[in-house]
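Hey, resending since the last one bounced:
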Amino acid sequence: MKINALLLFLVCLFLQSGKTQENNNSIDLVFGVDFSNRNLKLIEEGNSRSMSIIDLREGLERPSINFGRIGFNFNQLVSKQFILKTGLRYAKIGYETKEIMPIGINQWTTDNTLQQKWIRFKYQYHFLELPLMLRYKIGSKKLSPFIEAGISANYFIGTNTKSIDEFGKENGDFDELTEYHKIKLVGLIALGMDYILNTKYDLFFQINSRYHFTETVKADTPINENLYELGIEIGGRYKF
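The structure tokens again:
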């Protein structure tokens, strides 16, 4: 209910601002990089097998850096310091394993003293994002900080797993989509800086934090996986 109320409030504010303001719109072109991982949560306490799986994954997996966030924003000035933002982005996030060596069927080790070839797996999730955010701009100087907060509806495109060997060779294919939620609700918060070039163009830089409230896997499993991200975005803005 709180999320629905927030959505309704932001949409009404956006529509009202369009009526009361003229020539205060802008479009951004955005590029970004994300440092992402997943949070594992045991649904049923006392399930020793599931706890062992979590312990194994926590020992083998780590965050990964993902290049490829790209898209555009549409901004509507609400007041001198408040701006509503929406848009559309493509994003690729996920996590990876450490360098591991096979020691048996479905058995791995990170012991790098063993004289064998290692391999690393990278799990990537692909989304289309539709954000709805409120920005508060601090001051009106040529270089001004801002903060943003809001939510995003993420449409799940697919996931693929890459294997990377010690020579850097990559292999990977898209997996089936049936086990995953198609629409995910994501919370966002950001800190950034605007730099005014002239009356028509700005540049900006921001640090983003995102948490996926919707679990990754749709099936009824004993372990929940929620993705989270810390990233940077740079972009240019055209005002009209």
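The chain has one domain: 2-239.

Sorry for the duplicate.
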